[in-house]
Amino acid sequence: MDIKIKTLKFEAGEKLLAFVEKKVARLEKFVDDRVETVEVSLEDCKDGKKVKIQIHAAGNNFIVDRAADTFENAVTLCVDLMKEQLTRAKEKKEDR
User: Fold this and answer.
1) Which terminus of the chain has a lower count of CB atoms within 10 Å, N or C?
2) Core vs surface per residue 75-85: b (16+ CB within 10 A) or e
């Protein structure tokens, strides 16, 4: 799974990039189809840290975004929501 991390309005450190890579890579086991791209956007805003995850897999696009007090918390929230989305999509596909 190819993970592209974009940072907006700041320069991310190695520890943060490694954390994001590790968390997002876990989503691969929830995707049935071949994953084309995974984009993670990190943005430092006045109201907190925003994270957006987009997964493009075999004609389906899954997008979640959340804000939190730290990037780690925002990434964790996004990954949890993405797991739910991917699981629901997988169940729908199996029901057909």
Assistant:
1) C
2) bbbbbebbeeb
Q: Where are the domains of the chain?
A: 3-95
Spatial distance between the Cα atoms of 54 and 3, rounded to a whole number of angstroms: 10
Say which CATH topology domain 3-95 has. Answer: Double Stranded RNA Binding Domain (3.30.160)
Q: Residue 69: which pLDDT band, with cuts at 50, 70 and 90?
A: very high
pLDDT band, very low/low/confident/very high, at 75 (cuts 50, 70, 90): very high
Average pLDDT over residues 16-29: 93
